[in-house]
Structures are given as C-alpha cells and as structure tokens.
C-alpha cells in the first residue's frame, strides 16, 4: 500500500501529492534548586550558555508583581547576579513588572506591551526573555516570546506550587479572550524551566495549598503509589514540611513531563487530554466566580465531582471517591462552592455548559478522563447530565455533613 492510499487519498490524473515528513526534537532542562539567583550558584548562567558558551547573553526579565511585592529583594538580587556573572549575562534593561493572576491573561494589552519591549530592546532569537512568577505570568510571557520573531528563547522560573509541579514544566502558552480561558495561545516548549523552592516560602497559605490539587490529579490518573504517598503525607504537605513539599513537586512534575513526552500527543492534536482530569468543571467554575476560586481550588472540586461520577458510572469502586475527598480535605481543600448551583438562562445549571466549552476548546469528540481505579484514568466520550447532577448533590451533602 502506498502512502497516498494509506492516508485515504487515491491517485488522480490532475493532482500530484508529495508527503512531507520531518520531526523536531525538543530538549530542555527542568531543574529543581534552592537559591537560583545566589551569586555563587552558576546554574542560571550555565543554562544561558548551554549552546553558546563563549558569549555574553542578552537577557530581559519579566516579573510577577505579586512576587516582587512578596520579595522586595528580588530585583536587587537579579541585578547582583547579573553583575557577578557579567561575563555571560548582559542585562539589557530593567525588569518589566506586570500584574500576576488572571489579570495578565485577561487583557491582551499586557502581551502587546511585552512585544513592544522585545522590539524596542532588539531581542532576537538568540536573546532570552525570562519570566519569574506564577502560572499566569508564565503563560502570558511565553505567548509574547513565542510569537515575537516566530519565537525567541524563553526561560520559565515558576514561583508557585502549581506552576512548579504542573503548568511550568509543560509546552503550552496562552491568555484568555472574550471570557474564554486560554483561547489565544501556542505550543512552544521553553528553553529551560528553573524551579527554586525558596520562592514557595513567600506564598500565601491559600496559594500554597491550592497547587497540591494538581499533584492529586496526576497521581489519580497515572501513579497509584504516588497517590498512596500523598495520603500518608497529607499532614506534612498541609504544614509545608520542606522534604514532603519538595518530593510532591518533583514527582508531580515528573509525571506531567512523562505524559507530555511519551503520551503520544504533546501538542494535543487528538481529542484526549488526560492531564485535564477534573478540569472541565474547574475551568467553568473559575469563570463563573470571576476567578475568585483559584485554579487549584477549582481543580480539587473537579476531581471530587468526577470521582463521584466515576462511581455512579460503574467505573470506580464505591467508597474510593470518599477516600479521595478525605485526602483533599486533609490537605486543606474544599469540595464545594455555592456557584456550582448557579443557573444559566432557562434554568439549567450553568456548570453543565462547561462540557461543551471543554469540547470546543480542543475540538473533535468530547473526551473526559474519569477513574477506573486509584492511579488509573479512563477516557469516556459522553457524560450523563443526570449523573453529573447526582454527583453535585453528593458533593453538597458531603460538604454539609
């Protein structure tokens, strides 16, 4: 069989078809460290120089305003680091400071401002744009870097639990548009991801806890042993014991990286998104609450909802959803929010529109990841709305118990 017929094309007298095929390897370091910008630590400078060791590298920093506010010494430490490694670092301008959270993703003007700066400072494909902040800043800066000159080198320095254990190690960049989450974006792997655990010590408790939800998510669909470890270490995680927190982040990041590299669809060309277990409702809940519910908090609720639905659908053994909810609660996460009962025009639950929006964002057939067991995800292509309502009722009753 020739390649044309294999692809569903037949020979035509009036057409010549050539098949172009090539692959592009993506290789980038994901590092975990303490004191990334301590002058005596060469890691950052080494990452800059990994392809061209004998030159000074032009660098432009974009910082999360919340991170700068929590760490007033950050900018001086960056300047001191650049001075200490001036043989390899050329700091071409003062750092740009932008609002973090969904603010930076909701207004395209912030992306345009970054692109203006990239142009004004003549940042080319051999220069670096370095983002330091939470997942929203990493997304927005990544989009600006990926679309300037069709892609300039971009380094991520995640500063939150969620961005270190999940979003920061991935290959996606995006901002919101017309109220639709991550509508404008790219798939553009970074030059490097450098995770400094010291940033976590400056996070509010609420943010630090919320990020653990993504570790629970990936453990539930990919690694039973890691899930059991989370159960055993819930108290240590909830009190931010460094050894437990750091292991949780590293293992979660490893599992996310493995799925991206070996799951067969790193740029999401198909219909399945297993790493979005619990996310169809989480994304909708975030929008419904105007992001007053944090992403990780919404994901925790989405996990609980889909775990109960998995039981109702006969996939997951009854009682396992209770076990999952107990873990989430022991970590300090809630499983209910009043907005889950909000009605759309016509009286239907507004949350249910999240299914159509989830499908529309990816395209293809609806594909939702549910659970067959702890550590075993299972894809389905339809959701029974009555079961979703029953699962919501269970969550509400469980929250009030």
TrEMBL record:
Superkingdom of origin: Bacteria
Name of a matching Pfam family: DHQ_synthase
Keywords attached to this entry: Amino-acid biosynthesis, Aromatic amino acid biosynthesis, Lyase, NAD
Domain 3-dehydroquinate synthase N-terminal: 96-207
Stretches assigned to the 3-dehydroquinate synthase C-terminal domain: 211-340
GO molecular function: 3-dehydroquinate synthase activity
Gene3D superfamilies according to UniProt: 3.40.50.1970, Dehydroquinate synthase-like - alpha domain
Annotated EC: 4.2.3.4
Cofactor(s) needed by this chain: NAD(+)
Name under which the protein is recorded: 3-dehydroquinate synthase
Organism in which the protein naturally occurs: Sedimentitalea xiamensis
């Amino acid at each position: 069989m020739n390649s044309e017929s294999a692809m569903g094309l037949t020979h035509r007298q009036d057409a010549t078809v050539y098949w172009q095929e090539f692959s592009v390897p993506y290789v980038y370091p994901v590092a975990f460290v303490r004191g990334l910008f301590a002058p005596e630590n060469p890691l950052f400078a080494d990452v800059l120089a990994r392809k061209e060791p004998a030159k000074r590298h032009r660098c432009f920093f974009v910082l999360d305003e919340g991170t700068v506010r929590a760490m007033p010494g950050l900018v001086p430490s960056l300047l001191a680091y650049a001075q200490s490694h001036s043989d390899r670092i050329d700091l071409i301008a003062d750092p740009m400071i932008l609002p973090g959270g969904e603010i930076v993703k909701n207004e395209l003007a912030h992306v345009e401002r970054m692109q203006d700066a990239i142009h004004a400072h003549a940042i080319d494909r051999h220069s670096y744009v370095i983002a330091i902040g939470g997942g929203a800043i990493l997304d927005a800066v990544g989009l600006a870097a990926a679309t300037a000159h069709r892609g300039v080198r971009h380094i991520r320095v995640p500063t939150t639990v969620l961005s270190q254990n999940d979003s920061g190690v991935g290959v996606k960049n995006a901002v919101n548009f017309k109220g639709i989450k991550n509508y404008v974006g790219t798939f553009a792997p970074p030059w490097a991801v450098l995770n400094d655990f010291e940033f976590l010590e400056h996070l509010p408790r609420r943010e630090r806890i919320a990020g653990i939800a993504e570790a629970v998510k990936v453990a539930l669909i990919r690694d039973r042993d890691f899930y059991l470890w989370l159960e055993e270490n819930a108290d240590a995680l909830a009190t931010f014991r460094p050894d437990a927190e750091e292991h949780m982040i590293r293992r979660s990041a490893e599992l996310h990286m493995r799925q991206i590299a070996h799951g067969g669809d790193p740029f999401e060309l198909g219909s399945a998104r297993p790493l979005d277990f619990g996310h169809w409702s989480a994304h909708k809940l975030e929008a419904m609450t105007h992001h007053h519910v944090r992403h990780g908090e919404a994901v925790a609720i989405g996990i609980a909802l889909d775990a109960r639905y998995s039981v109702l659908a006969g996939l997951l053994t009854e009682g396992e959803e209770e076990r999952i909810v107990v873990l989430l609660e022991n970590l300090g996460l809630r499983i209910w929010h009043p907005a889950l009962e909000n009605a759309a025009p016509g009286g239907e639950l507004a949350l249910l529109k999240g299914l159509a929006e989830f499908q529309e964002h990816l395209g293809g057939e609806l594909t939702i990841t549910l659970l067959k067991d702890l550590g075993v995800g299972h894809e389905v292509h339809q959701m029974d709305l009555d079961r979703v309502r029953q699962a919501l009722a269970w969550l509400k009753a469980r929250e009030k118990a």
